[in-house]
Amino acid sequence: MGRPRGSKNKPKNIKEPKKPKKTRIANLVTKKQLKKLQNESVLENTLAAQMRDIGLPKPERDQEFYPGRKWRFDFCWPSLRIAVECHGGTHTGKGHVSNAGFRIDREKINHAQTQGWKVYEFTSEMIMEGVAVNFLEMYIFKI
């Protein structure tokens, strides 16, 4: 008659079907595309749109600037040696504003300055209120 219902003993010649692998979003895009998506933030995209809308020169984005380190600027104009860093979440105490994150960012900015870069830093509030783009327009690009 076969084995009783609910029995834990399974016939040895019958294999259980494999469970389907869970699909992760990382499997749907290339590693390069995923890295780009992770690096771009709503904050950076907002500032990029603001700069475009008022006609500022198009910046390079996510640009490495220091040999031997993986430091990147959020925006930069290499021929002018001008860079912009966007700092979101300044009220959370995490990431760039944690003690370790803050220290690493200062090291990055200090090294950038030794290479002749002028780095301007803006908080999320400065970007969302238009203060950042107005500063860039009035003092840096003088349009």
Report what the structure shows:
- The protein is built from five helices and four strands; from the N terminus they run ααβββαβαα.
- The chain is elongated.
- The model has no long low-confidence stretch (mean pLDDT 80).
- It is 37% helix and 16% strand.
- A hairpin with a 7-residue loop joins strand 1 (60-64) and strand 2.
- It has helices at 31-39, 42-54, 99-114, 124-128, 131-140; strands spanning 60-64, 72-77, 82-87, 118-123.
- The protein is α+β, with helices and mostly antiparallel strands and 143 residues long.
- A four-stranded mixed sheet has the order 1-2-3-4.
- It has a domain at 61-143: Endonuclease, Chain A (3-Layer(aba) Sandwich).
CATH class of the domain at 61-143: Alpha Beta
**Biggest β-sheet, characterized?**
4 strands, mixed
Number of strands: 4
CATH architecture of the domain at 61-143: 3-Layer(aba) Sandwich
Q: Name the helicity range.
A: 25-40%
Which structural class best describes the helix and strand composition?
alpha+beta
Radius of gyration, taken over Cα atoms and rounded to an integer in Å? 25 Å
Detail the topology: elements first, then pairings.
Elements: H1 31-39, H2 42-54, E1 60-64, E2 72-77, E3 82-87, H3 99-114, E4 118-123, H4 124-128, H5 131-140
Parallel strand pairs: 3-4
Antiparallel strand pairs: 1-2, 2-3
